[in-house]
Amino acid sequence: MLVLRQILISEKAPNSYTETAITESVQKLSTLLDSSADVGLEEIVDILVVTSSSEALETKKDIMSRVLLKSLQNGDIIFNKVSAAVYTALRAVALAGSGVKGRKLAEVALRKVGGVILLDRVVKAGEVLVKTAVVSCQVHGPWYRCLV
Predict the structure, then answer these.
(1) Quick one: how far is CA 106 from the chain centroid?
(2) Which of 46, 72, 98 is the last residue of a domain?
(3) What residues make up the domain containing 128?
(4) Which tens digits make up the pLDDT trace of 69-121?
(5) Of 30, 86, 133, 140, which is the most buried if we count CB atoms within 10 A?
């Protein structure tokens, strides 16, 4: 989404169009990623480029592919910032709960990378994480106590 936002800003697209395009892209990407576990970079770029204007389509695809590929590598500044923001948001939900306080803390963390639109998905993942931790403690609790 950061890459799409940057491309639309460089095209001097109106703010309302940029936000609409990003929202639509998030919905399409969510649907694609939920339906298939094996999604390639090409499919992701195709969804992101569709929202962009038609002129110089191949050039935009190439640029977006290169930037996405680079930003998905460990050690990349973008990767590190987005990973840290998502980690902080998940931690906020896990420690503060999925209520108003936890959601607000997660929103603050995601806002730093422009990921507020994913807040509901992060909260849902945080709830699953908490449930998994509770079950793990119930199942393995006696074993953990023996280790300590």
Answers:
(1) 12
(2) 72
(3) 74-148
(4) 887 787 888 888 989 999 999 999 999 999 999 999 999 999 999 889 899 99
(5) 86
